[in-house]
Amino acid sequence: MKKKDKKIDIAFYSKMYQLMYRSRKFEEIVMQLWHEGTIFGEMHMSVGEEAIHASIIKNLEDGDAIAVDHRGTAPFFMRGIDPISLLLEFIGHKDGLCSGQGGHMHLFSREHNMTSSGIVGATGSTAMGFALSHKYKNNKNIAVALFGEGAINQGMLLESFNMTSALELPVLFVCKDNNWAITTQSDSVTGGVLLDRAQGFGIAGEKINGLDFQESFSRIGYAIKTIRKTGKPYFIHATCVHREGHFLGDQLIALHRTTGKILGDLVGSLTKSLFKLKGGLVGERGESLGHILKIMTSSKHQLKSSVDPLVIAKKMLKNQGADVLSVEKKADQEIDQILKQTLQIIQGGNQL
Ligand SMILES: Cc1ncc(C[n+]2csc(CCOP(=O)(O)OP(=O)(O)O)c2C)c(N)n1
Ligand SMILES: [Mg+2]
């Protein structure tokens, strides 16, 4: 153990790492099936959000509800929903979680009180409905709303801030902030400070580093305890990155992964265009080039291992002497089995 590292509960955090690692490996299967064409259409990954999801799941109790946005794979997997039924759902198979009708963006589990939606901002109202039902039943359960920072400019999310505060409903609002809403940099279209927005509705909150599993677990744990005690909503603003970009096939991420030369050529052509006599105003061309450079720098940053929550967690655990490799080996075997069994079912037919 390095001197500067504070002693932690290795057994507990190893379990948390196991959950995050299993989820990452499961998503890697999803990516593989998508690249092969077995899963088709848009596919948004939760890769890079694992510390946030594991922290929520590890702090929840039976009966608590979660409303998830378009990045539902990790939270549904971590909550313990049958992984084969998830893969079959993504493939459009009749034995999928929602009979193959929902796909990865519209998942539902009555047993686990979980929903997901591709409608940006809708999770606030859904969680509010869950929480209203908990309040009527007086059961001390809470509801979680997961959304990106792009959703925070949606009216319905702000309406749910207002109503949960006015009706005193037990909702944990978790904003996963990667500063991107598809190709828009969210800070360029968002006024003020997000925490101030929640506080303006009378909702307590705090900003956390969503890449750090210790900080996320402890602060989200505090938020959930506070909600159970007060019955009132709480807002967590968690920073994170999306290592696969907005969705699978995100071209900027792909460019960085393939070759720096293509990227160099792209910037080269754009720079050359600045000096062409014909075309738009030079100032406008310069502005576009600046925008593209900003996008490229940001997407390059997303791929660095220093912003990977799994790398951060693993490093910390290894410094504490935890046996991370055996955790990984066991998880690899489990995930291999899930893939094998899923492929056997698909090969047996029954696709929609
Ligand atoms: C109501 C609505 N408006 C627009 C869209 C299109 N859309 C899908 S994802 C997305 C960006 C969301 O950004 P953010 O909330 O930050 O989530 P992230 O993808 O970064 O996780 C948009 C605008 C949508 N699905 N629903
Ligand atoms: Mg975002």
* Shape category: globular
Which small-molecule species are bound to the chains here? thiamine diphosphate, magnesium ion
Fourth-level CATH superfamily of the largest domain: Thiamin diphosphate (ThDP)-binding fold, Pyr/PP domains
Structural class: alpha/beta
The separation of the N and C termini measures 53 Å
Tell me the strand order in the biggest sheet. Answer: 2-3-1-4-5-9-8
Q: In total, how many beta strands?
A: 9
Largest sheet: 7 strands, mixed
Order of helices and strands: HHEHHEEHEHEEEHEHEHHHHH
Integer count of domains: 2
List the helices and strands and how they pair.
Layout: H1 10-36, H2 50-59, E1 65-68, H3 73-78, H4 83-91, E2 108-109, E3 114-116, H5 122-137, E4 143-148, H6 155-166, E5 171-177, E6 180-181, E7 184-185, H7 194-200, E8 204-209, H8 213-230, E9 234-239, H9 251-258, H10 260-274, H11 282-302, H12 309-319, H13 324-347
Parallel strand pairs: 1-3, 1-4, 4-5, 5-9, 8-9
Antiparallel strand pairs: 2-3, 6-7
Helix pairs in contact: 1-2, 1-12, 1-13, 2-8, 4-13, 5-6, 10-11
Bound molecules: thiamine diphosphate and magnesium ion.
The site of magnesium ion has 7 residues, from strand 6.
